[in-house]
Amino acid sequence: MIASLALAAVLIVHTAPAAGQDGPIVTAGPATGETAEALRIREAVAYANPLPRGAPEADYPLVAWCEALVNGHVALGETLTDADPLDRDIIRLGRLEAADFRAALQAAEPRQSAASRAAARAAAAEATARWAPLAGQDESVRSQAFGLFFGLPGRCEHAARRLRENITTPPATPEEVGLE
Question: In the 3-class helix/strand/coil scheme, how is 134-165 assigned residue by residue?
């Protein structure tokens, strides 16, 4: 079912990036020409998919977790002496994505409870710790790990947008957007 939801979302909202577009790879924000309904469908799919083990469910801690994973990936890439142009571009885009997550967290921080802020700190520490075992490895191992990072759940970008825009209503479900 989740695979069919993802396929439906891709078919419904496939949009090409604007020429010369620079910045984080758009997986959740309004793309050029994307309708509000298309964004709602992609958000429903993102929230319907299960998160990886260890990822927090609440948006604020999740965005902190996502930012820490991206920062760890960037830091790992920066240790590579044989980084090719694609690696350098991934590092550059990762920095932009991490900055986007950081801005969302900063915008939402005053609205968070002490418990939510503590959960975000714990989630970020856990995500950061995932990269620690690679610190002492030789370059070939670090390079392979950098190349094998599979990215983030689509919910990260949606959660960041919801934090930035102070959206407090629950996201739509696949059923509500006509996918089930």
Answer: HCCCCHHHHHHHHHHCCCCCCHHHHHHHHHHC
The contacts of residue 154 (CB under 8 Å, 6+ apart) are 27, 28, 42, 45, 46, 49
DSSP-assigned states of every residue in 19-40? TT--SS--SSSPPTT--HHHHH
99: enclosing H helix or E strand? helix 85-108
As given in the structure block, the two tokens for residue 79 are 């240790």
- Closest by CA to 23, choosing from 107, 85, 100, 75, is 100
pTM of the complete model: 0.80
Three-state SS at 123 = helix
> How confident is the model over 58-116, as pLDDT tens digits?
999 999 999 999 999 999 999 999 889 999 999 999 999 999 999 999 999 999 999 99
Q: What is the pLDDT of residue 7?
A: 35
Amino acid identity for residue 30 in this structure: P
Residue with tokens 């921080």: 109
